[in-house]
Design goal:
The protein is built from five helices and eight strands. The chain is of the alpha+beta class and 229 residues long. α1 crosses α2.
Length: 229
């Protein structure tokens, strides 16, 4: 399965919000407070405003499977205060809002999003791909460890947000794709350009008949909230 990635537009905000609400409910049903108000997650209204600004900045992407929105990721060079040092930020891209629609869980869509972040890091000559994960979500931490990241540290008490588990992976760990043409980093007001991340040989099924889609996947959600600045 080879997802297509395109820059998100403001018309995708409803889809991205649905991804967030879907995952929040799924996590809550499993005892996690990630993204909830009680867990000090961003209120959904603040989340929408933050994503909208990221979309306008050309920082948010949509992954599609057979033409259906399947996941989203935001990649920039910012983070909440007191997580990463200025030097760490200067030499990395930072992942936020990585969420996979539950219908497409298990298809390695998250893997393609992480590879895309590495491609953006390479284009910016950044050495690292970094992210902050919800501090108490150990299943999410395990996901990133399986994905080749390592735990840099748990941020100290000066970082007061709920996502203080800091993960990183060297950009060089990803093999640069040879067949993709990457669109310029322009705001999403321009016409989106589709491209493909060649991860595995693609196999295509009409979406309603795909043998891989399942309603209750046993996977974890992707990274926690991005900064609101």
């Amino acid at each position: 399965m080879t997802p297509h990635l395109r820059p998100a537009s403001l018309s995708d905000l409803g889809t991205i919000t649905r991804f967030r609400l879907q995952r929040t409910n799924w996590l809550a049903a499993r005892g996690s407070d990630q993204w909830t108000r009680t867990g000090r997650g961003l209120p959904i209204e603040t989340f929408v405003r933050s994503v909208a600004q990221a979309v306008r900045n050309g920082e948010t992407w949509i992954a599609e499977v057979n033409g259906e929105p399947a996941a989203t990721i935001t990649v920039n060079d910012r983070a909440d205060e007191n997580l990463w040092s200025p030097g760490e930020l200067a030499d990395a891209v930072i992942i936020h809002y990585m969420i996979v629609d539950l219908r497409f869980a298990g298809l390695r869509v998250g893997e393609s999003l992480l590879a895309h972040a590495a491609c953006l890091a390479r284009r910016k000559h950044r050495t690292w791909v970094r992210l902050d994960a919800w501090t108490t979500n150990e299943a999410l931490h395990a996901y990133y460890l399986r994905s080749g990241f390592h735990l840099a540290r748990i941020a100290g008490p000066e970082a007061t947000g709920p996502s203080r588990a800091l993960f990183e992976r060297p950009t060089a760990d990803w093999t640069a794709p040879h067949t993709s043409t990457y669109p310029p980093l322009t705001p999403a007001t321009t016409e989106p350009t589709l491209f493909t991340l060649p991860l595995t040989p693609p196999t295509t099924w009409p979406l309603p008949h795909s043998p891989f889609l399942r309603p209750h996947p046993g996977v974890v959600a992707e990274p926690g909230p991005a900064p609101t600045t």
